[in-house]
Design brief:
This protein is 72% helix and 0% strand. By secondary structure, it is mainly alpha-helical. The relative contact order is 0.17.
Length: 430
């Protein structure tokens, strides 16, 4: 076997995932003790996310010099996010209603240990839209970077970039300095990524060791419905969108295979955010588009999370023999349209948003969350992967709308073609 395969990141990560599953299954207590490895890797990545977002957005906006264009790009991105995530909510609720994974379980909520989800239920009480919008504004600039709040860093970066663009030529030295610093930060990311196999091993060993593969048995229908929904959503919705944007979806997945494996292993899409931004620029998306769409998408374009929330809510209703009226189902959709936004920056966000949703529908007891608490971790991978893939395609869509997608560059990188060769999708071969 070629030695370069062993040196490739995707092979190392894939191997670490396999070993992590094996260790967690054979030695549960040891696997559970590996949690710090996964946590440390994610913390290392989060450490650098704020500065990279700041540099990328400031360089993009100041280099663009047109705030009307910034507003136009942001508006198009948010419109796309809203349409696609709304569709994902309906997609999830349709599939869980048709397949009925919770039917026949006849769970008595009183028999469940609600103490395991009490913290999430309490956090849900403060998860309101008012709190969400207030949390976009940091107490101080330093506080935004210290806490790693993506939306807060995004807000300050846009303001800084807009102010810097007003200085014209006088602001060039500052802009050049920030651009040079950004290259240093991306080199730091390259160094951190060398520890990705250790991080994925630790995260996977912990998941299997703590929750155990055996815990999946009783809720396999729920897991199957959720992963089927994510798969069908990517094939039936995201794939056609990618084709419209001029992207071959399979080539796209192959190009981001390292990031996909890392997200699967760590169950966190934030673990590859800097790499996504860097590789999307290499694919021909302009720096300003990438800088605005990706960080915003990590809070507003959560396709996988939206699918999970609707499926989990309706599943709990089915499992507890709760008959929901059409109005109640519509209310769930309406609530999730609001509460699902910005959830990515909250620890245990999926459960917190789900608890907030159930609180708005008294017919489904919040204590029923304890039923899926043990398998929630196994659905996190699906949520993170779907979110990641959807955000990458969203960047291409906005770049195409703005005519800021360098197709020659994309063909060279994605299809390994020379400048004078047309990609197969343009010739109708794909």
């Amino acid at each position: 076997m070629n030695r370069t395969i062993f040196k490739s990141l995707h092979f190392q990560v894939l191997l670490s995932i396999f070993i992590g599953i094996l260790v967690g299954y054979l030695y549960p207590s040891f696997g559970e003790a590996m949690k710090p490895l996964g946590d440390a890797f994610i913390k290392l990545i989060k450490m650098i996310i704020g500065p990279i977002i700041f540099c990328t957005i400031v360089c993009g906006i100041a280099g663009m010099g047109d705030m009307k264009k910034v507003g136009r790009v942001g508006g198009k991105a948010l419109l796309y996010f809203e349409v696609v995530t709304t569709f994902s909510l309906f997609f999830g609720i349709f599939l869980v209603t048709v397949l009925k994974p919770g039917l026949g379980m006849n769970i008595d909520v009183a028999s469940l240990d609600a103490s395991s989800v009490s913290a999430y239920a309490q956090a849900a009480q403060t998860h309101t839209m008012g709190e969400f919008f207030m949390n976009i504004i940091p107490n101080t600039v330093v506080d935004a970077f210290a806490k790693g709040e993506i939306l807060q860093v995004l807000l300050f970066s846009i303001l800084f970039g807009a102010a810097l663009s007003k200085f014209g030529e006088k602001g060039k030295p500052v802009l050049n300095f920030i651009n040079d610093i950004s290259h240093v930060f991306f080199k730091i990311v390259d160094i951190i990524m060398k520890f990705a196999p250790l991080g994925t091993f630790g995260a996977m060993a912990f998941t299997i060791g703590k929750y155990g593969i055996g815990s999946l048995g009783p809720l396999m229908k729920l897991l199957g419905t959720f992963y089927l929904a994510c798969f069908l959503f990517l094939c039936l919705v995201i794939w056609p969108i990618a084709k419209w944007a001029g992207i071959n979806f399979l080539h796209y997945l192959a190009y981001f295979k390292d990031e996909i494996l890392i997200v699967f292993g760590t169950a966190s899409s934030e673990s590859v955010l800097p790499r996504m931004m860097e590789k999307l620029e290499k694919l021909g998306c302009s720096k300003s588009i990438v800088g605005l769409v990706i960080p915003t998408g990590y809070s507003f374009n959560l396709d996988g999370t939206s699918i999970y929330l609707t499926i989990a809510a309706i599943f709990l209703a089915q499992a507890t023999n709760t008959d929901l009226t059409f109005v109640q189902e519509a209310t769930i959709i309406a609530v999730l349209l609001l509460t699902s936004k910005g959830a990515s920056g909250v620890t245990g966000s999926g459960f917190i948003v789900l608890a907030a949703t159930l609180a708005s529908i008294p017919a489904i007891p919040v204590g029923a969350l304890a039923l899926i608490f043990g398998v929630d971790r196994f659905m996190t991978q699906g949520r993170a992967l779907t979110n990641l893939i959807g955000n990458g395609i969203a960047t291409f869509v906005v770049a195409k709308w703005e005519n800021e997608l360098d197709r020659e560059k994309m063909s060279q990188v994605l299809y390994n073609r020379k400048e004078n060769e047309r990609p197969a999708f343009e010739e109708g071969k794909i």
